[in-house]
Amino acid sequence: MNKREISLEDIKKPIQKELNLFEQKFKESMQSSVPLLDRITYYIYKRKGKQMRPLFVFFCARLFGEIQDAVYRGAAMVELLHTATLVHDDVVDNSFERRGFFSINALWKNKIAVIVGDFLLAKGMLLSLNNNDFGVLKIVSGAIKMMSEGELLQIEKARRMDIQESIYYEVIRGKTASLLASCCAIGASTGGANEEEIEKLRLFGEYVGMAFQIKDDLFDFGEDKIGKPKGLDIKEKKITLPLIYALQDSSPKEKRNIINLIRNHMEDNKKVREVIDFVKEKGGIQKSYFKMHEFQDKAYAILNEFPESEWRRALQNLVSFTVDRNT
């Protein structure tokens, strides 16, 4: 670890007590009287991720005051939505692994996985409705709409392999950034912020989400810290930012060749390697890093409009972790 890096565990420390309480509340929010559902949701709970979304909710709320019950409910709502989308994504992508463990559809098949995703989404909605958290519900409903539109736009454009940089940003703004934006807006809203402050932090979260997705794109081409390139997005014919930049700087002949490889030869690892090498040679990696840091700087600029505090610094560290992470 170099001197500029900070671990996620260090970032969590100022709010670890609240996170522990949140974990209990989140577990309770998934409970069901149906034994099968209870077994599945317990399996999901035990394999949770890094808790980055609740962190954004809590830190944004702390910019304005103490952590109230509404903040916990808002964080739980976001995690329920996020978990539901992951379960559904694994069905859509026919993926049998999630975070190194079997996915829900791998263990219980697609039909049950879809129903479980629906159940989690309904639990999140009811959590807000039963507590009159209509502001939270409105924010999350907007995120669900944007996530669906982003996913469908990506599918439409991927079929024709004609995605442009501006369309790419529209896709990831919906698919990825809208959820982080909703985390920050919910944190601000439940923390007592006014409408202008809520919108500022929503935009802050959107910029962080854009940087987050570009970082994910870069993982596909392999970074020194994580070893050999993965090439998973390429094999799935996903058009990512490094590839877009590389194609922009290519001759018509080069572009036709690469698109043909992606469309017809991605079962051949040598051809995947050829695409990866092409992207690197054309500067797609460096340009994507530059754009990622551009979004990061926009996020920092919004944070700097708020008074200096422990919580502003925590958010700054969380943004740094987002773009410096190795997984």
Can you describe what's shown?
The protein has 327 residues and is mostly helical. It has a single domain (8-324), classed as Orthogonal Bundle (Farnesyl Diphosphate Synthase). Helix content is 75%, strand content 1%. The protein contains 15 helices and two strands. It has helices at 8-12, 16-29, 35-46, 52-62, 69-92, 104-129, 134-160, 165-191, 195-219, 232-235, 241-248, 252-264, 269-281, 284-303, 310-324, and strands at residues 97-98, 101-102. The chain has a two-stranded antiparallel ribbon with strand order 1-2. A hairpin with a 2-residue loop joins strand 1 and strand 2. Helix 2 packs across helix 5. The longest helix is centred in the middle third of the chain and has 27 residues, at 134-160. The two termini are 15 Å apart. The model is unreliable at 224-229 (pLDDT under 50).
Q: What's the helix and strand layout?
A:
Blueprint: H1 8-12, H2 16-29, H3 35-46, H4 52-62, H5 69-92, E1 97-98, E2 101-102, H6 104-129, H7 134-160, H8 165-191, H9 195-219, H10 232-235, H11 241-248, H12 252-264, H13 269-281, H14 284-303, H15 310-324
Antiparallel strand pairs: 1-2
Helix pairs in contact: 2-5, 4-5, 4-8, 4-15, 5-6, 5-8, 7-8, 8-9, 9-14, 9-15, 11-13, 11-14, 14-15
